[in-house]
């Protein structure tokens, strides 16, 4: 079982969420990498059973390069049936994670509901919430592998 946490972050807030989510996944002994979408390789996505994607919200949307990544790179890996999770830091409206989850569902992924949104820089309590999402991802993966 493998998971990947892919993020786009302008000032590090969504990146901090990604690292905390990955540490939650790792704490349950599931193999995981947190990577910037700039560095992610299609084979990393192909190998992953769970894919978490995060972007901060800019102008009421996810950042444009992340939208391109979702529509082109992620869609091309045919992630149907994989476990998905969406997250992101925001300032006031926070649409990006909702839009990411919507795209994941369009691709046939099973997306964890609700998405995880954190206002600005994650506090210690927010980091715990991100770790909790990571644990949830790992537990859902283990459950799926048992029932498969
Ligand atoms: C130019 C600009 C536009 C933004 N637009 C939005 C927006 O439409 N909605 C929102 O919730 N936050 C908006 N934000 C706030 C960012 O989402 C917020 O600062 C976030 O913490 C950045 O996270 P990051 O470091 O992961 O990129 C905007 C910020 C900037 C600088």
Short description:
This protein has 148 residues and is an alpha/beta fold.
List the helices and strands and how they pair.
Elements: E1 2-8, H1 13-26, E2 31-36, H2 42-47, E3 50-55, E4 57-58, E5 61-62, H3 64-76, E6 83-90, H4 96-106, E7 110-111, E8 116-119, H5 124-147
Flavin mononucleotide binds at residues 9-14, 56-60, 89-94, 120.
CATH superfamily: Flavodoxin domain
The number of E-state strands comes to: 8
Q: List cofactors, ions and other ligands.
A: flavin mononucleotide
Approximately how much beta-strand content do the residues carry? 25-35%
CATH topology: Rossmann fold
Output the helix-strand order. EHEHEEEHEHEEH
If classified by CATH, what would the architecture be? 3-Layer(aba) Sandwich
Bin the helical content: 40-55%
Protein name: Flavodoxin domain-containing protein
InterPro entries: Flavodoxin/NO_synth, Flavodoxin_CS, Flavoprotein-like_sf
Organism: Methanosarcina baikalica
Describe the structure.
This protein has 148 residues and is α/β, with parallel strands linked by helices. It has a single domain, classed as Rossmann fold. It contains 5 helices and 8 strands. It has helices at residues 13-26, 42-47, 64-76, 96-106, 124-147, and strands at residues 2-8, 31-36, 50-55, 57-58, 61-62, 83-90, 110-111, 116-119. The strands form 2 sheets. Strands 1, 2, 3, 6, 7 and 8 form a 6-stranded parallel beta sheet that branches. A two-stranded antiparallel sheet has the order 4-5. The protein starts with a strand and ends with a helix. It binds flavin mononucleotide.
